[in-house]
Amino acid sequence: MKKTGMLLIGMMILLCPVVTKALGDGPPGRWWQVPSMADKVGVSQSEKEALDSLYVQNRRTLIDLKSNVEKERFELDNILGQQNFNERAALNQFQKLEQQREKLSMERFRYLLQVRKILGQERYQRLMSMAREFHQKRERSRGGPPMRNE
User: Fold this and answer.
1) In terms of residue numbers, what domain contains 77?
2) What CATH number is given to the structural domain containing 56?
3) Is 139 inside a domain boundary?
4) φ and ψ at 84, to 5 degrees?
5) Which of 23, 29, 44, 139 is the S-S candidate for 144 at Cβ 3.0 to 4.6 Å?
6) What is the pTM of this model?
7) What is the mean pLDDT of each successive set of 10 residues along the chain, which is 150 residues long?
């Protein structure tokens, strides 16, 4: 039973980033400061300023949330590495880790929602299409499997 529980926890740890990735990523960094990107999307100066402000606020929050995820992951690794394995403690710690990952994912999603508010539906869709193309090219250059378009 202990081995099965550890295997299940291990599989969940490995699969969670894949599920989060499947939700989709926006373009990396301050894309609106790249003239060719900003021109393709049609971003005005006032929108660039709003995106800059949003980006700074979001990055500060993400730094804290990522730190929380790492702390909870460390605690889980510590529990899993103990000689006297406590399955209940491992499950409880895994729940804490997942709660922190959920907060991180939610913040990333909130950021995308705010970007959509700034850009509107049409330009946001254009941006997401460009982001998918970017991520696909990056994956291909790394030798990974092509991402699905959904």
Assistant:
1) 42-128
2) 1.20.120
3) no
4) -95, 90
5) 139
6) 0.72
7) 51 45 62 93 97 97 98 98 95 98 97 96 94 86 63
